[in-house]
Design goal:
124 residues, alpha+beta, six-stranded mixed sheet
């Protein structure tokens, strides 16, 4: 679905929510498809504790990434945004509001995100 204003075509914002129990913890995911990219929020409670953005660059094979808000010592949002931007070739905003407990947990969360994105190719 798209809308035209002054000759420009704008994609409609679509929203997709899903949840998963990972290592006995309920994790919630909120994805908003934007024109040319998407916003992903991951958390167990309704908190926006950080925000990172990443996008491809013609000067480097690794996407550019920066933390827009949050604790710079927590690199989870930045890293995830960068990996998703590389995979999807889109601009990606990520808020990762989960405690950094162990790497296995983070890998399982990322695996679940990638599985969902594969199930919804028409959205992303």
């Amino acid at each position: 679905m798209s809308e035209t204003q002054n000759g420009e075509v704008f994609e409609a914002i679509t929203v997709h929510n899903f949840s998963e129990k990972i290592l006995e913890q309920s994790i919630h995911f909120h994805v908003m498809k934007l024109s040319g990219g998407f916003f992903l929020w991951v958390g167990s409670s309704p908190v926006l504790s950080n925000l990172a953005v990443s996008m491809s660059s013609k000067y480097d094979s690794m996407p550019l990434s920066t933390l827009v808000m949050g604790d710079p010592s927590n690199t989870a949002a930045n890293s995830l945004a960068q990996r998703l931007a590389k995979k999807t070739k889109k601009q990606v905003y990520v808020s990762y509001s989960l405690p950094m407990t162990d790497n296995n947990f983070s890998l399982l969360v990322e695996k679940r995100i990638k599985k969902e994105l594969e199930l919804l190719p028409e959205h992303f």
